[in-house]
Amino acid sequence: MAAGGRAPELRVLLCLGALLARWVTAGLEAVVIGEVHENVTLQCGNISGSSVLVTWYRNDSEPVFLLSSNSSLPPAGPRYSLVNTSSLYIRDLSLQDEGNYTCQEVLSDTRSFPVWLQVAGGPYQIEVNISTTGALPNGTLYAAKGSQVDFSCTSSARPSPTIEWWFQAYSNPELFEKNLTVNNFTLMGMSQNLQGNYTCLATNPLSRRQRKVTTELLVYSPPPSPPQCSAETSPESPALQLICRWDGGYPDPDFLWTAEPGGVIVGDSKLGLEVLNESQLSDGKKFRCVGNHIVGPESGASCAVQIRSPTLLTEPMKTCFVGGNVTLTCQVSGAYPLAKIQWLRNLTQPEAVIQPNSRYLITQNGQSSTLTILNCSQDLHEGYYVCRAENPVGVRGVDIWLSVKEPVNIGGILGTIISLLLLGLATISGLMLYYSPAFCWKGSTFRGRDMGDVMVLVDSEEEEEEEEEEKEDAAEEEEEETHEREELPKEVRKHGHIHRVTALVNGNLEQMGNGLWDLQEDNSEQQSDIVQEDDRPI
Ligand SMILES: *[C@@H]1O[C@H](CO)[C@@H](O)[C@H](O)[C@H]1NC(C)=O
Ligand SMILES: *[C@@H]1O[C@H](CO)[C@@H](O)[C@H](O)[C@H]1NC(C)=O
Ligand SMILES: *[C@@H]1O[C@H](CO)[C@@H](O)[C@H](O)[C@H]1NC(C)=O
Ligand SMILES: *[C@@H]1O[C@H](CO)[C@@H](O)[C@H](O)[C@H]1NC(C)=O
Ligand SMILES: *[C@@H]1O[C@H](CO)[C@@H](O)[C@H](O)[C@H]1NC(C)=O
Ligand SMILES: *[C@@H]1O[C@H](CO)[C@@H](O)[C@H](O)[C@H]1NC(C)=O
Ligand SMILES: *[C@@H]1O[C@H](CO)[C@@H](O)[C@H](O)[C@H]1NC(C)=O
Ligand SMILES: *[C@@H]1O[C@H](CO)[C@@H](O)[C@H](O)[C@H]1NC(C)=O
Ligand SMILES: *[C@@H]1O[C@H](CO)[C@@H](O)[C@H](O)[C@H]1NC(C)=O
Ligand SMILES: *[C@@H]1O[C@H](CO)[C@@H](O)[C@H](O)[C@H]1NC(C)=O
Ligand SMILES: *[C@@H]1O[C@H](CO)[C@@H](O)[C@H](O)[C@H]1NC(C)=O
Ligand SMILES: *[C@@H]1O[C@H](CO)[C@@H](O)[C@H](O)[C@H]1NC(C)=O
User: Is the sign of the CA dihedral 461, 464, 470, 471 positive or negative?
Assistant: First the structure.
């Protein structure tokens, strides 16, 4: 406008010099821009303050008188008034006021000054439409990562506005190289760095008036992999902690833990952590975690854990020579969460947990623990050792009998005699069984002399309900060659629990039912003897 204003000024001087009555030619008129509902002043040429007669016309098809400085002529309407003796002041503009105006001044001669009034309106209301996945309760829009989003912006103005889109990313403020001067555009494959504020800016080309609407758009993504469930022993208490992890999504998902079957709700949280106390736990109980993400699967994604009390596997007895070393092994299986394994001495005594020291070495490898007793002594070391495994679901304990012997084997001779006696007894029992097979149901078995030596205790403890004290027998045998002593304690009571212990002999256990053993030897000779004895070894 500054450059445009200079040209008519030069022309004025030229025209005056040439004494031209009308110096107005096309393109030389002043252009004034007003806005709807605003007021505007149209100046009459470059006259200021001179007391001449000025008349304003509106030139459309034919000139229409508006107002004159001759106060005896009233103005054409109340909106018109004269300011600074020659300027036309129009209040409360409307679009109809747009047009060409002429001011005529009568001095020595008559001169006309045209003024082109342009009236701009708006931009008015901006309509922004963003096709997204959804809107949050607070109105913020979100789109799923990878989706396509269409943006459109419309606004009305007179003359029609220029529309420009402008993006402010949270991360990278200069993502759009330049502002997009389009009404509509589409973003394919939304990504995290397209999250931010999208501003639609409408500009009136005449008045330069602007209006904008800023829309915040979040780009959400569900976690890439399925949720992971786990259970842990709570660090501070013996409680159980259920942990559900479903990472990598934005925003964070919600978690719901339920107990199965039945779907009883255990907890509902943003963290996916639930602490369960003892009353809510039982062996084999299953818990399910359902993760819900705003742009994740509709029914959520789930995982489950099954909690289990520990099961113990250990040798029932061990022998150590005086001054020697012996290693007791205890293998825990099935425990979930992982069990804490401890070694104890004789449960009837105060439950002193064996601490590793110069005489006891304890090593744990996964869910297997070994206790090594160094420098065995009969007084100190002979007796029961207890391997105890505990997790929040349950506690199990199994006895291991350790006998400490003199290296010179006097007992071996005695053992031979006992073996022979037992063999005799076995033969008699075998005969009895031959005539009365049902007898074998009463008790346990006697192991054949020439059977293998591997004996493994399998602890298959049942719950406390099984309170009836039923003492089952142990088959035992001493073998001179190995000087090994083995025993089969069938049930041992401790902690008020009953441990039913079954023995696997020679790995040849084919069948087991109600304590009945079918032992099959290679020569297919079936041998089944009954010995009623105390738990105590010889
Ligand atoms: C226009 O002029 C009138 C009276 O002179 C005044 O009341 C009004 O506020 C003005 N409007 C604007 C937008 O300046
Ligand atoms: C009007 O004339 C004066 C001097 O007479 C000059 O300073 C001024 O710039 C002129 N204005 C216009 C709009 O031509
Ligand atoms: C506008 O009207 C005036 C007065 O009648 C006349 O002198 C002038 O030529 C007209 N101008 C245009 C551009 O029509
Ligand atoms: C003002 O207008 C009146 C009525 O039309 C007229 O009589 C009078 O001469 C005019 N005055 C001037 C100074 O032109
Ligand atoms: C009248 O003239 C004075 C000085 O030239 C100026 O400041 C003022 O804005 C003018 N008034 C109008 C309504 O144009
Ligand atoms: C005003 O005059 C100019 C030329 O002088 C013309 O281009 C324009 O269309 C006119 N405006 C109106 C509203 O008649
Ligand atoms: C709306 O809520 C979302 C998520 O809680 C938040 O990120 C966003 O800033 C909120 N927007 C407004 C305008 O409060
Ligand atoms: C986006 O807009 C909201 C409010 O409209 C503001 O709080 C936020 O700071 C803006 N973000 C950016 C990156 O400009
Ligand atoms: C885009 O438009 C905004 C608002 O008018 C402006 O602040 C910004 O500088 C523009 N950016 C570019 C790259 O033109
Ligand atoms: C164990 O949890 C149940 C249910 O949440 C509650 O009623 C009970 O009081 C809790 N018991 C203890 C010892 O915290
Ligand atoms: C018992 O173990 C200790 C330590 O490992 C070792 O020094 C010692 O020789 C072992 N004793 C026998 C009899 O093997
Ligand atoms: C446990 O220790 C007590 C006292 O030392 C003893 O009387 C009892 O026989 C021991 N029991 C077992 C099973 O070793």
Answer: positive
Q: Is the CB of 166 under 6 A from ligand 9?
A: yes
What are the tens digits of pLDDT across the range 141-181? 999 999 999 999 999 998 999 999 988 887 665 556 567 88
- 179 Cα–ligand 9 center, Å: 6
Beta pairing partners, 213: 200
230-262 pLDDT, tens digit per residue, is 999 988 777 899 999 999 999 999 999 999 888
How far apart are the CA of 197 and the centre of ligand 8, in A? 6
Which secondary-structure segment (H or E) carries 304? strand 301-306
Residues 6+ positions from 439 with CB-CB distance below 8 Å: 432, 433, 530
pTM: 0.64
Q: How far, rounded to the nearest angstrom, does the alpha carbon of residue 483 sit from its chain's CA centroid?
A: 60
Closest Cα to atom 6 of ligand 4: 72
Q: What's the 3-state SS for 337-398?
A: CCCEEEEEECCCCCCCECCCCCCEEEEEECCEEEEEECCCCHHHHCEEEEEEEEECCEEEEE
CA atoms within 13 A on the CB side of 3: 0
Q: How far is CA 494 from CA 133, 374, 388, 497, in A?
A: 62, 27, 11, 5
Phi, psi of 434 (to 5 degrees): -60, -40
Smallest CA separation from ligand 3 atom 4, residue: 63
pLDDT tens, residue by residue, 274-312: 999 888 899 999 999 999 999 999 899 999 999 999 999
Instruction: Decide if 157 contacts 183 (C-beta within 8 A).
Output: no
Share of the chain above pLDDT 90, in %: 49
Q: pLDDT averaged over the chain?
A: 75
Residue 455, pLDDT > 80, answer no
Least confident of 90-99, 137-146, 413-422, 466-475: 466-475
Atom of ligand 12 nearest to the CA of 384: 14
Measured distance CA(527)–CA(61) in Å, rounded: 132
Q: Which ligand approaches the C-alpha of residue 139 most closely?
A: 7
